[in-house]
Amino acid sequence: MAFDHSITYKKKNLRNILHQGRLKKILKILDNQNMNSCYSYLDIGCSNGYLTSLITQKYGFLISKGVDHENENLNIARNRYNDIKFNYIDLNKPVGNTLENYDVITCFETLEHVGNMDNAIQQILAFAKSDSSFILISVPIEIYHWGIVKFIIKMIYGYSLKELKNGTTFLSYFKDLITFKNIAKYRDNRDGWGTHFGFDYREVDKLLLKYNCDYTTKNHLSTRFYLIHNKSNFM
C-alpha cells in the first residue's frame, strides 16, 4: 500500500515538524517569485498530489500536472484532484524529445530516491521554458551535522544499511560521514531507485554546474533548496 505523504504535512506531531517546516519554506520561496506571467505548473515526484493541488490552488495556475513513478499514488491523486492531470514518469530514463514545457516546476524530496541522478536532472531541466520558467527543488540533507544526527537516530530505531552496496559497514559509512567525505559511493542503484542512505546533495550541485545552470541554494533545517532561474532569489 502506498504511503499517504499528505499526512506528514497535515498531522501535527513531533515526527512531522520538519516536513511542516519545509512546506512553510516552500510557500515562502514561491511567494517571493513573480507569478504574474506563470500559467502552467508541473510537480515532479507528486506522490498522491497533495502539494500539487495545494500549490495549484494557491497560485491559480491554468494548467497543472503532477508526475510520479508510483502508479498507486497516481491513482489516488486522480481520484482526489480531478482538475489536475497526473501521469507516470521514470526519471532514470534519458530525456525524450516530446517533453512539454512549464512556467513553474517543482521537485520535492524526490531526487534522493532516483537511481540515475544525471538523467533525472536532465529531465527536470528539459521541462523548463528557457526564457521565463523557474524550477524549485528540495532534497534532504543527509551529510554534515544534520546527516550525522539523522543517521544516529535511524540506527537507534533499527534502520538497516542493506539497501547500500554489499560490504558497506556501519563503521566505514559513519567514518566517512563524520569526516564529511562523499557518501554517494555507497549507493546501490541496481533497481533504479535509491535510499536516503548515501544521498549526498553535492552530487546535485555537480550536475547543475555540469549543465551550466544559474541557481541559488539555501539550507533550511534538514532540507536543501535549489532555485534555478536567472532572475529569482530567496529574498
Number of domains: 2
By CATH, the architecture of the largest domain is named: 3-Layer(aba) Sandwich
Strand order of the largest sheet: 3-2-1-4-5-7-6
Uncertain segments of ≥5 residues (pLDDT<50)? 231-235
Q: Could you please describe the fold and organization of this structure?
A:
- This protein is of the alpha/beta class.
- It folds into two domains: about 5-140 and about 200-230, Vaccinia Virus protein VP39 (Rossmann fold), CATH 3.40.50; about 145-185, no CATH class.
- The protein is built from eight helices and seven strands.
- It has helices spanning about 5-10, 15-30, 50-60, 70-80, 115-125, 145-155, 170-180, 200-210, and strands at about 40-45, 65-70, 85-90, 105-110, 135-140, 215-220, 225-230.
- The longest helix has 15 residues, at about 15-30.
